[in-house]
Batch of 4 targets.
Target 1
Amino acid sequence: MEGGYDDRDGKIWMDGELVDWRGANVHVLTHALHYASSVFEGERCYNGRIFKDREHAERLHFSANCLDFEIPYSVDDLIAAKAQTLEANGLTDAYVRAFAWRGAGPDMGVASARNPVRTAIAVWKWGNYYGDAKTKGAKLDIAKWKRPSPETIPHQAKAAGLYMICTMSKHAAEAKGCSDAMMFDYRGYVAEATGANIFFVKDGEVHTPKPDCFLNGITRQTVVGMLRDKGITVHERHIMPEELEGFQQCWLTGTAAEVTPVGQIGDYNFEVGQLTLDIASDYEKLVRA
């Protein structure tokens, strides 16, 4: 078993060069550590190919722009760096974490325009995000925290600061023996899990929350397209909490989660049904094609 994420063999790409894993460090006065000025991507490499490689690199740039900074490497630079990092670590099936942040520099207040923007890529082996829930169905708590209004956060960005309430919600869920937590949004509609989008099935049709105040995940968009290609009706809409009782199936989507069935949310139970199993299988085939 490997040690902590700060104590491993291997290489991490930082600011244009590969460095030893244990030496990939930043100063304690790094701006992102104090003010969350950081964006990231979660990606998976299957059989030597990163799924949606370019889309992830483009979104990293988009997220940085949302936080008012520019990544000093182009999309093509990032794609090449990811491939270089995978090769340096001898991995063909791996999780890929690309990220960028405001580093330490002359500014140490809220404003940090003069600080350098740092960029890094790390890769490692990572199995099922939810363990055996991938086949048995995850058990979800219902979080007390809600996704904020888009007037208060750049919700389209995959930004580190937006995950603070997700971390707290997932910790509370795990303390109750759950795999994750489902969150409502600021209006009381069903939103997402702490790091994955959510789908429901009723009478052969699929319902998924409208991503108007949370991240419209790349995996989510992929699965919506797959369902429609199969001729299945997909409703992207606001979902009220009381509707949970009427849904028959449920699953989560995300780069880490892939397609994971859900068996329970709070007091509501769902079957791991055929449509859930089919879309999980189809997604697995797609990413490994």
Target 2
Amino acid sequence: MHLEKRVLGRGLAALIPEKPTADNMQMLESNIQQSVRNIPIEKIKANKYQPREEFNQEALSDLAASIKEKGFIQPVLVRLKDNEYELIAGERRLRAAKKLGYKEIPAIIKEASDLDSLEISIIENIQRENLNSIDQAKAYKRLQDEFDMTQEKVADTIGKDRATVANILRLLNLPAKIQEYVSRGTISMGHARAMLSLAKESEQMRLCTKIMKDDLSVRDTESYAKKLALNKPKSKTSDKDPNLDSLEQELREIFGTKVKILKSKKGGKIEIEFYSDVDMERVLTLLKSKR
């Protein structure tokens, strides 16, 4: 059985209500054909489509304490694959149960394709556990690469607009070290987006170091990135109209990439650089939004 994307786009609660009623439990049983049972934890294998790479240990301890006091408010979600139980959603609950030394955990067993598994995992993490932007970007990239999805299809699937998806995917153009800082929460997504306006990796790393050293705000980071772009040495042989330089800078800030304006006697052209298929789609999305 393959779930309709519009159901997933409404969020995990559309599949597993937080507070089940008689009516929606009947709907789940008849339409989604799910059943709840206690499953030995040792028989549940990890979900290879889990989008989260970082797990906050303090938050995990808090969850374990809550489960110990109140029990499981909601079961985990698993599927049968190759005669084993594979986790679809509920990684934090499973880890908390292991932390408590539990031998079993309540689970909903359902039929799900690989795509269903990844979609549900992404949605659960984004809507419930504040998935960091780098893990989001990697998850969206997997939807694109492994399931041949366009940015628009990814956006429809997870219930976000395309521009948001494009901006998050752009973070993967940053150096791995900066991505690691974003993933750990050392710097924010706002800081990361400001660094994307710089074309050279060395400039991005230089600004990243300054952000952490001087505890720059996002606004300060944006201002500093703009100064770096404006203070680049110009060619001595350049005789370009300073008005064009100003326009180029304005367009660079809009598109977050290199932009050149080439004038000729009869007109000219504007060149907008991109560095990957994802980046190209981002630029196209921005162009369409300006219509």
Target 3
Amino acid sequence: MSLKGKVAVVTGGNGGIGLGFATGLAQAGADIAIWARNIEKSEAAVKKLKSLGINAKAFNVDVADKNQINQGMIDTEKEFGGVDILVANAGINIRKAPENYLPDEVDRIIKVNLTGVFDCCQAVYPSMKKRGGGKIITVGSLTSVFGFGIAPIYSATKGAVVQLTMSLANSWGRDNIQVNSVLPGWIKTELTEQTRSLPDFVNKVLDRTPAGRWGEPIDFAGIAKFLGSSDSDFITGVAIPVDGGFTSTLFLVDPPSN
């Protein structure tokens, strides 16, 4: 699964799951363009990725702003020559009961999690087509499959991301562009730090996870290499959970004693 000579854009690639994706792609030899907003985090991520022997550079891009996305694409092409792989990872969540959301909060979540994903895909398409093909990895969620009462807008956008993935795969297959989605399970990141401070909730997750642990960002390195490489050329339009088996399980049961 060598990606030497390939260029990957990873949105939100300066931390958490995004950095896990970027690390896997870099391990396989791809050069990395990080599109993110936190400059300090991005610089630290670039340093880590460069230690793997590849070229990496961060660009200040807010995926809620189409103009910034377009400029990020211009700057990335200027630095790297083009784009072969996109990981559309950047996303936000605001946890509230449905009746308590403000209009601006709803608009922001949709703008980042859905419109931003589409705008990034649209931005890289001409470069991928020109280069003879490409790989797009969108990032959904367990809420692409399950409802989540305190995150209904987030859940709606993540369900829509999977439908967008299938539709783009259908449309761009003729251009040798494969589009797939990854659905992360419960992962140890900054975004779940507060949740992981609740012992009862942590235990509920573990009780339903066959792997017996929460995920780590580096758990996304392998799927990034596979979906970013030619080994996945005949796989497109699918959503793959990376969740330790959470979505496969109603609840864990003890084996029979005899």
Target 4
Amino acid sequence: MLKKLTIVAFAAALAAAPLPVLAQSKKDSVVMGMTLEPPGLDPTNAAAAAIAEVTLYNIYETLTKINEDGTTSPLLAESWTASPDLKTYTFKLRKGVKFQNGEAFDSAAVKFSFERNAVPTSTNKDKSLFQSFESVAAPDADTVVITLKNSEPNLPFLVGQASASIVEPKSAATNVTQPVGTGPYQLGAWVKGSSLTLNKWADYRNAAAIKLSKVTIRFIGEPAAQIAALLSGDVDAFPRVTTRGVAQFRSDPRFTVLIGGSKAKTIVAINERKKPLDDVRVRRAILAAIDRKAMIDGAVEGFGTPIGSFYTPGSLGYVDTTGINPYDPEKAKKLLAEAGITTPLELSLKLPPPPYARQGGEILAAQLAKVGIIAKIENVEWAQWLSQVFAGNGPHNFDLTIVSHVEPFDLVKITEPDYYLGYNNDAFNALYKQIVATPDEAARAKLLGDAQRMLATDAVSGYMFQPQWPTVANKKLKGVWKEVPQFENDFSAWSWE
């Protein structure tokens, strides 16, 4: 409580201070704020969304580009066609493109990138996508043919994600710290723990259209510091900023406030590899103890829509499953008793740095305590969370955690045997195979509804809410996105008025 009061008082003091002139002495440069610092700069070998926020469409490019409205358009591929069964896609590549180290971009680079993502030792977060490719053929320098094991209507979208970035083979091993792509920006300085600079690449094929010559990204995790940096003019824009200062910025004529929808799912993840969490009654008890509305109000200031499964409103085949595991503390106690649990039951709760997780964790612990579950909070840094909780090779050292999964179309994750949740349900895996083998959209939508109901019934996770992401920007900065189909910041579209 003291921390919250301090933040409010600090923000109020800043608001009362004389309004500074926002920093924009150079109209061809911008300073952007980010909550999390990326652990590296290769989006093809790690899961952190912060990597894409820095690199996607800026340093690296993909075959397609995902637009603000979720549609896809040509990028490194000029065009593509699909077979009627949606199992074969032919991409025609853009000619005359070079990597930032001078090497030519061609079909061999695409084949290398996708096959590298699929090898057993790959740490690509979408490895299962690339392993679903039967083959990647390069019949000539300007053509790539992808043959899939199952139909995939979303492939043009999926190959526009950061995990499908095209890398230059010679540079692949060092991209984590010395990224090489085909995009309009190159890495300048990276001061770990503080900031990162991107400089316009003079030899980019369409350099004349790029308005910003320099982008400085400052890493600011503390909500009060995020608010202060915007108010003082130290940063010009802050996508996915803390929800706490939104009302204040809406009443300040210097700023534009954008509230964007997303395909993200904020969940209480449950480690089903551990007893007694392998008992569905215990998982249902955890879900029955969670008051979604209180979580949304307390963790994200109301900026969220309740969800009951690993799927979001607006997606193909969405069904409302929030009624399957409603808030019911008395039912939670009964379920624990039925499972033979002697309370208090102690569980670990590992929380990564984002405010929704840290604030949400406090609320979750209080809610669980009311039904006899003691959640022992352990705050961890992002790198620790990735290695201890999420990493495919384990150790999956957690009972509960809170995290937002920001990627669309990621139901496939639930089928992966080494996925951190440890669900491993043959019935769900068979249903998912049926989904991807069904090209008819109406039939696929029905099966997707079945999948959502199964995940909710099995209480695979505590599904909480679909977040809405606020972005605050200087009113004179143009091209900043409102909607968030995925985590990205396309600086090629940014400019000053």
